[in-house]
Structures are given as C-alpha cells and as structure tokens.
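Justification of computing resources. Each target in the renewal requires a structure prediction run like the one illustrated here; the chain below, 25 residues long, is used simply to show the kind of job we budget for.
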Amino acid sequence: MPFQLNQKAELQVNHLLSATIREHL
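Resulting structure tokens:
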C-alpha cells in the first residue's frame, strides 16, 4: 500500500510543479 500512497503524493507534487511552472511562464 505505501507504493500507492507514494504514487498519489507524486501526482500531487507533479500537479503543484506544473501549476508553478505555468505561473512563471
């Protein structure tokens, strides 16, 4: 189960990074 939790966390991090990058563009 920890793997699934890590996957969800990774998706959230990727989403935040994408939003941040878009803001800076």
